[in-house]
Amino acid sequence: MDGSAATFVFLVQSAGIEAQSAAKKFIRIKKPIRVSGADGLNDYGQRVELLPHSGFKVSHTIIYDNAVIKEQHASIDFANTDFIKAVSRARTFGLMQEFEQLREMNLVQGGSLDNAIVVDEYRVLNADGLRHDDEFVRHKILDAIGDLYLLGHSILGEFVGYKSGHTENHALRTALLAQPDAWDVITFSDRQKAPSAYANLGGLDYAS
Prior knowledge:
alpha/beta; seven-stranded mixed β-sheet; 26% helix; globular
């Protein structure tokens, strides 16, 4: 595919949505959960946390020693925008020197400009450029959403990531599940009482 979630979105939309008879379950964050380098991760300043929030919000900051990526921050409250518009088309990315090193190790053999954004020291190498000015950090937000969904239910809360990736997101999920007093599972029998971050998605997420 192209390194984003666009193909999955297209296929879901093509298949259509069928309302279910049971109310959708949500994991509601009741108190902050935080994981950082001090918790046994490789400490490069990474941290991730989940905070109480009435809807669903994801914020992320990345910092790269690269003149193209540099430092990017984005904060997306899904009460005000939707997943498809905001993050679904943001592609994964990498540095050209990293691709070369991985290929020497006989890895990422399928990696190309067709399924990732590739940058060298000065520019984006993809002929079509970027889909968003901050596409790099938006893909990190897309990653975080996917990692959180491995919990089995949509989150009512705010995710905040700093220089983090899949490893830290996994550690955050583990920390959350280890503290059952920090969350609970709730439903909304009345769609109108559901958080607007989900109720306003035209059924795409609320009914699934």
